[in-house]
Amino acid sequence: MSELAEASGVSAGTIKHYLREGLLGAGEDVVRTSRNMAYYPVGYVERVRLIKRLQEDRYMPLRVIKDVLDDDPARAQALVELEDRILERAAAAGDRRVRVGVDEVRARHALPERMLERLAELGVLTPDARGYDADDVAIIEAMERFRAGGYDERLGFTVYETLRYKEALEPLVREEVRALLGRLAGEVDPDRAAEIVEAGAAPLRELIGAMHSKLLLAELRRARAAAG
Predict the structure, then answer these.
(1) Which of 26, 49, 61, 211 is 20 to 30 A removed from 147 (C-alpha atoms)?
(2) Closest CA to 198 of 116, 92, 62
C-alpha cells in the first residue's frame, strides 16, 4: 500500500476509500499475504491517478467515476488525454498570441474605461497583466460598433446585455465540448483530435452568426404576424 500510494501520488487513506467504493474493481487481483499486508497490481497506479484527476480536475463525483470506469476505463483515460492535449495546445497558442496593453486599448478604442472595467467584472473580458487577448479586442470592437449603431445607454442598452449571450452560450458550449470529446476520444489520435477542434473554431463562429441572423429575422416576422 505504501508503494502504491507513493507511485500514484495519492494517500493510502484515499486509496483505501477507493477500494471500499469499488473504484478499483472487486479486488480479485490483490494478493493478500497476511491480515495487514497485500500486494496490488501495477495497473492500480494509473487507475488511481485517473480517478484522482477525474475527481479533482473534472469535479466528477465518485459514483459517476465508478460508472465511467466500469463501462470503459480505456475511454475514460482517452478522454483525459484528449482534454489535456487540447488545453496544452490552447495554452501554447495563447502564449504565442500578441496581447494588447490596457493603455493601448484605451487609446485606440472609444469604449469608456468604466465599461471596460464592468465587462471584466462580468467575465466577458479577461485581461491579465499583459493586457487583452485577440478575443477581448474583438469583443471591445463589437461593443463599439453596437454603440455607434445606436445601442447605447440612452435607449437602455448597457454592458449587462452581454450577459444574455454569455449565459445562453455557456450551456451550448458545455454540450459542444461533451459531444466533441465523446466522439473524438479513443477514436482519433489526441493531436489530430486537437487539430479538428481548432479547425472548427472559425466556421463555427460563421455558422452561429448566420443562424442568429436567420432566427432574428424569423422572430421579427413572427412578432409582426402576432401583432396583426
Answers:
(1) 211
(2) 92
For the packed helices 73-96 and 43-56, what is the interaxial angle rounded to 10 degrees? 60
Domain count across the chain: 2
Which residue shows C-alpha cell 470503459?
72
Q: Please indicate, yes or no, whether residues 67 and 94 belong to a single structural domain of this protein.
A: no
**Do residues 110 and 152 share a domain?**
yes
- Specify whether 65 is located in the same domain as 101: no
Task: For 141-173, give one letter per residue: b (16+ CB within 10 A) or e.
Answer: eebeeebeeeeeeeeeeebeebeeeeeeeeeee
Domain final residue, candidates 39, 71, 103: 71
Q: Give the structural domain span for 200.
A: 90-226
CA–CA gap between residue 40 and residue 32 (Å, rounded): 9
Of residues 16, 22, 14, 21, the one with CA closest to residue 52: 14
Mind listing the pLDDT tens digit of every residue in the chain (228 residues)?
Answer: 999 999 999 999 999 999 999 898 766 778 888 888 889 999 899 899 989 988 887 777 888 888 878 887 887 787 777 777 877 777 776 656 678 999 999 999 989 999 999 999 999 999 998 899 989 999 999 999 999 999 988 999 999 999 999 999 999 988 888 788 778 777 878 788 888 888 888 999 999 999 999 999 999 999 999 987
Q: Decide if 33 contacts 1 (C-beta within 8 A).
A: no
In this prediction the pTM is 0.67
